[in-house]
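User: For my dataset I need records formatted as: sequence, then structure tokens, nothing else. Please produce one.
Assistant:
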Amino acid sequence: MSQQLRLVIADDESIIRMHLKETLVGLGYLVVGEAGDGVSVINLARELRPDLVIMDIRMPKLDGIQAARVLTEEKIAPVLLLTAYSDRELVDRAREAGVVNYVVKPFHEGELLPAIEIALARYNEFREMDRQINDLKETLETRKLVERAKGVLMDTQGLKEHEAFRKIQQLSMNTRKSMREIAQAILLTAQIEK
């Protein structure tokens, strides 16, 4: 690993946390924070912004699945659950909460490395898809604004569609503003002049 991955771990049993930390450090990871309950792990992750959170399910105040849901919804860090419980209901809840991987205790050191790497890879894929979706939404919104602005220019200045588009393009280049900003300005001006 070129850069040490930063992890936060959470388990209500300090002996288990200590063993997990030793194992993770031995695998080359950096444990930047430890927590004993679900509320503390959320606060710690918000503050430290780790690359991954590894936690138990059964913890006081807030269980690991509820904490995972918060961390996932707030896009703070991916969550790997490390737990002695593997019943169907818990696995389903974990999946719905956005948990990216699940390892059943007692675990072997050899199971942890691939589980962590797969969890990080999946999380990065999700983030990339999220970024692409946002880019597409932005592109679509810009297109809609440019179309409306072209309509305004065609109506107010008697331009043909390609001329209106070219005018928006020219204004964009001349002012070093995006076509979206130019379209918004045209639409705003049209609203003011009504």
